[in-house]
């Protein structure tokens, strides 16, 4: 579900952003409130309206700047028992790319998405529909971002971060993306390097080396590039070493057991994959006349370096404090999570409305993603 177009962005490159959204398939989870409230922009969820997200198709803007997919996860055992006596309040219409929320017997709301993935969608299908086009554009030298947003316990970490060690069919977007990248690049001439960070209570930490704490964000005033020089940058040459890094990162990530998810992520995890490709410049042959003799002169053009950045963001889930049962420190975490999600929502909203001002300064999460949003404001 990558952007089909793209936005003119720095050095003639293009920023392609992609937002992923996971929702629970649960009749008693009040999906309506989680869909329409919190930080997810209303404009990101098109209510029975054909307008395109990101940049409206009919306003002359670039289409597909932000694309949104919804994935429903299967009910878990608890939900199956609890929901047994209730009719489904969520109905998916994948062929129409719509999700219908039944408010009561006679009233419902309908939302349109760029992709609708049912609870039967495999990890492979989700990757192909949501992430593969973004990965392909990164290989072409663009910046691309895939984010999973949604209420706690809805399957964001499952969708993005699953390593699939027991069953390869379970592999999530991060693992599949690297597989595709490594298959495409040439290790002699190209380089692939990753940083893996977490943003916890407004502080950035290195998931690959927790000793690197409180990392600062550096923004290049000229190019608008965002970098985190304090974080480890590890060159990847083999898929196995990447999976090993993900495992290491996962072990350092803050998680807690809440009423809604036994393994609830309490930080936002941000994987940055830098792909630098060297494209051989075309040699040209010129004919020159030296001393009355005609010679063929070969000019060697320097290789063109093409850089792309893939950012995969596994957001901590938004939560209703009353439902998650967060208290004490976990409550403070939840407040911080909800705050940065709301800042992110405002930025997505601004992008979706093609607004000239994207308020990236409101949180570290949005500052970190600044060059993924495109534009310089
Ligand atoms: N598509 C799916 N198929 C089967 N199980 C799933 C699926 N999606 C999620 N799950 C299971 O649901 C539970 C919650 O998923 P996960 O931890 O990914 O949620 P989350 O959205 O990351 O939550 P949080 O915001 O609290 O971190 C996990 O046990 C996970 O294995
Ligand atoms: Mg999670």
What descriptive keywords fit this protein?
about 375 residues; 10-stranded mixed beta sheet; 20 strands; binds magnesium ion; Kinesin-like protein; ATP binding; cytoplasm
The largest sheet is:
10 strands, mixed
Number of helices, where a helix is a run of at least 4 consecutive DSSP H or I residues: 10
Q: Which structural class do you get from the secondary structure elements?
A: alpha+beta
Average pLDDT taken over every residue: 80
Bound molecules: adenosine-5'-triphosphate, magnesium ion
Strand content: 25-35%
> What is the CA-atom radius of gyration, in angstroms?
22 Å
Shape: globular
Query: Strand-and-helix sequence, N→C?
Result: EEHEEHEEEEHEHHEEEEEHEEEEEEHHHH
Q: Residue share in helices?
A: 25-40%
Task: Give the distance, in angstroms, between the N- and C-terminal Cα atoms.
Answer: 25 Å
**Uncertain spans, ≥5 residues at pLDDT below 50?**
1-21, 23-63
Total number of beta strands: 20
Draw up the topology in text.
Blueprint lengths: L6 E3 L3 E12 L6 H6 L9 E2 L20 E6 L3 H7 L6 E4 L4 E7 L2 E6 L2 E3 L5 H17 L3 E7 L6 H6 L11 H12 L6 E10 L2 E4 L11 E2 L6 E2 L6 E2 L3 H14 L2 E2 L7 E2 L2 E12 L4 E7 L2 E7 L4 E11 L6 H4 L4 H24 L11 H5 L1 H4 L4
Parallel strand pairs: 2-4, 2-9, 4-8, 9-20
Antiparallel strand pairs: 1-2, 3-7, 5-6, 6-7, 10-11, 10-14, 10-17, 12-13, 15-16, 17-20, 18-19
Helix pairs in contact: 3-5
Subcellular location: Cytoplasm, Cytoskeleton
Protein name: Kinesin-like protein
InterPro entries: KIF11-like, Kinesin_motor_CS, Kinesin_motor_dom
